[in-house]
Amino acid sequence: MHNGVQAQVPVLYVADADAARGFYELFGYSELRTGGDGGSRWSYLQCGELTLLLAAVTPRLVTAELPLLIYLYVDDLSATIERLTAAGYPAERVGHPEHAPGGECRTVDPDGNVVLFGQRRAVPAQSRAERTGSEARFSLIREAAEAVSRRGGAPARCQIGGPRGEVCPEPAEVKLADSWGDTVWGCMAHADEALLNARGAFLATEDGQGLGGFLRARQSQPERAVQG
């Protein structure tokens, strides 16, 4: 008989247990037990066989420098989006990846943690919602990454990294540029972040001859006109 883990309970440290509980109830969790003493408060939630423990401790035991990322699978993506929106939590569609053919969305909980949620059950292509601006942007980034992969020549690692200079171990997949001539290679996630936050940044491509080729072709047009 294998002797190992029988169950696991994710623990999420929050600032306000009631606010966090209300948020995760939108995903179908319900509170089984709650308690606390002095500066601590906890709420034990369950959804089917899944559990989640919310812990509010003053002063906070855990201070994350970056938002945590939580992934949830839901049975009905559209219904979940409607509940979140009605409660004041906007949900952003981010595509239909292989692990969530029914669609994937992103929202933020009351503590600023990014919550991704997807639907495993696929939906017909004609019934999918139109792409949002962010989804269309990410599709362009993916197309650029695929073009780079076919052509080769990208550096080994992402050059953008984290907000405090942390080195990103992901491979460089996309080249970005701006109007001042600066360029940088990044992974798709960091490229998406840069396009969102760096005004004037755009996807750079090396497939064509660029502006120089355009100008050379334009300058040769009058000569052809005269010769004709």
Q: Give the count of helical stretches.
A: 5
Helix and strand sequence: EHEEEEHEEEHEEHEH
Let me know the number of strands.
11
- CA distance, first residue to last residue: 89 Å
Question: What oligomeric assembly is this protein in?
Answer: single chain
Output mean pLDDT.
79
Helix content: 25-40%
Main sheet: strand order: 1-4-3-2
The biggest sheet, with number of strands, parallel, antiparallel or mixed sense and barrel status, is: 4 strands, mixed
Low-confidence stretches: 224-228
Bulk shape: elongated
Helices and strands: which structural class? alpha+beta
Please state roughly what percent of the residues sit in beta strands, choosing from under 5%, 5-15%, 15-25%, 25-35%, 35-45% or over 45%: 15-25%
Radius of gyration: 24 Å
Q: What's the topology here?
A:
Layout: E1 11-13, H1 17-25, E2 30-37, E3 40-47, E4 50-57, E5 69-73, H2 77-86, E6 92-95, E7 104-108, E8 114-118, H3 133-151, E9 174-177, E10 183-186, H4 188-197, E11 202-203, H5 210-227
Parallel strand pairs: 1-4, 5-8
Antiparallel strand pairs: 2-3, 3-4, 6-7, 7-8, 9-10, 9-11
Give a summary of the structure in a few sentences.
This protein is α+β, with helices and mostly antiparallel strands and 228 residues long. It is 29% helix and 25% strand.
Task: Offer a few descriptive terms.
single chain, 228 residues, alpha+beta, 4-stranded mixed β-sheet, 11 strands, 25% strand
